[in-house]
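#dry-run=false #mode=assembly
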Amino acid sequence: MPLLENGQIIEDTWQEAQDGQPLSPDSDILVPLSRLAEGLGRNTGGRLGVVLTPADKVEDLRAALPRLDMVCLTFTSFRDGRPFTQARALREHLGYKGSLRVQGHVIPDQYEFLLRCGADQVVAGTQSPVSVWLEAHKRFSIAYQPSVLDEKAEGFAFRKWLSPS
Amino acid sequence: MTQTPQPSSRQVGRYAYDSVDRTFLKQRVDQFRDQVRRRLAGELSEDEFKPLRLMNGLYLQLHAYMLRVAIPYGILSASQMRTLAHIARKYDRDYGHFTTRQNIQFNWIKLEDTPEILDILADTEMHAIQTSGNCIRNVTSDQFAGAAQDEVLDPRVHAEILRQWSTLHPEFTFLPRKFKIAISGSMQDRVAARFHDIGLLARMGDNGRAVFEVYVGGGLGRTPVIGTLLTSELPEEDLIAYLEAVLRVYNEYGRRDNMYKARIKILVQALGAEGFREKVDAEFAAMDRARYHLPPEIVEAIRARFGAPVFDADAAQAEQALALRLKADPEFAAWVRTNTHPHKQKGYCSLTISCKPAGGIPGDVTSAQMDLLADLADRYSFGELRITHLQNVVLGHVRQDHLFELWQILQLNGLGTPNIGLITDIIACPGLDYCSLANARSIPIAQKLSARFADAGLQREIGSLRLNISGCINACGHHHAGHIGILGVDKRGEEAFQITLGGSSGDLPSIGQIIGSAMSEDETVDAIVRIIDTYLAQRAPGEHFIETCRRLGTAPFKDAAYAVA
Ligand code: HEM
Ligand code: SF4
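#status=ok
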């Protein structure tokens, strides 16, 4: 499935840990929260990321965050908006600066929202052509409220300029 | 005699869009047009399309699509009203239906026409954004905002701030359930603040800035709840930050496994007021507050974009002119007494135009009537109109010496009914005539009751009374908050109705109690007549229905309702 960053398709260099399998020693690997300790204990050059479910508490990552290169949030359904709040909490409360990926059932109409809540990578489903995602990335030029991004002010009030570049 | 319409850039009572706002609306229309295209091309499943169309106010109902157009905090310009008339005429069956959330619904819309309709709406700075779906809905406010004598603070400015803040909010567009906010700036709560997910009562703080009492977790529906006071002293500068905190807690902890338990009221009950407050406070404390800080400059910049009426200097004599008319014409006097509201400006009043003629459908207005209302607004009220949550239309600033002329015109057009606040000023949801969730028809029983109590003298004798009808437990007709409520139920495959008594919104909120088993439509109408007779027989001098009800309890009314004639 295509992986998007900044409205571009990029290559995915990460692997997801397989249930019951040992963690591969050198690759960039994504582990579930339950295997976080194991991942942190993997004393190699590979990078480490964590996959959260919508019910996981981002607070549980607090101690590990400085050692994580990736947090991946999962939409079990695009209607379940909890990952938006998880993303914001990671960026805003926990000051997380690494990659923030989103996977699962997301739709292009949510692309802008995801970015504005702090996600930077999106695993795009195959249902919609990638062109629709790229369109969605450019659809709006302004937003009305503050977000976690430091968007440029547009005119007055809270209005923000959403620059697609 | 006639008012000059104000220049369109600062229409009275309305927030003036600029080119950025207009661009945004057009981008939103384009997005929806594309969503419709993708749906038709099979790129979006109906499951995926549904929440997207709902966020543009488009429902699929019993017979057709229904489009709900937002009227932010109820304020409309005359030209916007004409646009609504045009849509009713061209895309619907010549009618629009004003609703209890200060919106207008069109019941016979085609999916393919919707992008075009949204485009037409956008041309007059209107939209259907977030009138539906699991997002922050159209923010409602006092229909007398900016005009009422008892107002301490014009709530439209903050309602507009909340509108902007909540529009396509990135984090809160896929909430567990719909989310409704109401805001009042008067001593008297006319917005049913405690029956909303968040109710805000604004007052003036010591520093000359607004302060808010924040109620949370109120609502009707199958579990009616009166909102809990979360804080009584929220400073204006923290308004956005605090609401973000409340919504975040709701988004994180609100139930998603059961849609009947997904509203914030259930979460507040589950955590308890204290537990909920602790979570909100923790979130609020942890937030980057500077980011969400609402400084006075922003409030003032938004206030400055509202047009304000320039009142006539000679209007002071209007009162005497009106007084003479009132003496000369008792019928007119009765209308003025029920349908006007005190204005802060001497010589003016706010006028409520009843959309509930005897035997009519509450809230239904023809396109011709909409055009007329627009013309009257231009002539008599600075080109501004308001839609009330009681499904009527208000002219906010009418010179008292223009009332007589207005009354005559309204009477000729079926809009002169003197029943505001009386028993035939009925709220009714669309019910089984349109709504796919309904158990019973709300409209015919509303029409029968309205015809039964049509006599103006009898209505005045009965006095202040709120009668609300919902076609099912979802309570769109606010039946729980009615002094008399009627709830449509299904009784072994037949439409039937339960009566509730003692509900009230406003300053002393209470939830109506069901008095007994359901009855047929005609039995219900008769039962209500007997309930009213009981009240008339047993009331203490000067007592309103709700007061008698509170004093006596429901027992005597129940006996009357179920007495076999
Ligand atoms: C015709 C299509 C309609 C449908 C399918 C519909 C659906 C619903 C549903 C499912 C609920 C229950 C929500 C809950 O408590 O979780 C509800 C409640 C409500 N609806 Fe509607 N409704 C419709 C029309 C209206 C109209 C015309 C209005 C007036 C603007 C309205 C205003 C309300 C209000 C005020 C509630 C009270 C619930 C609360 O906020 O606690 N609805 N509606
Ligand atoms: S109360 Fe029930 S019948 Fe009436 S509009 Fe709401 S959902 Fe439909």
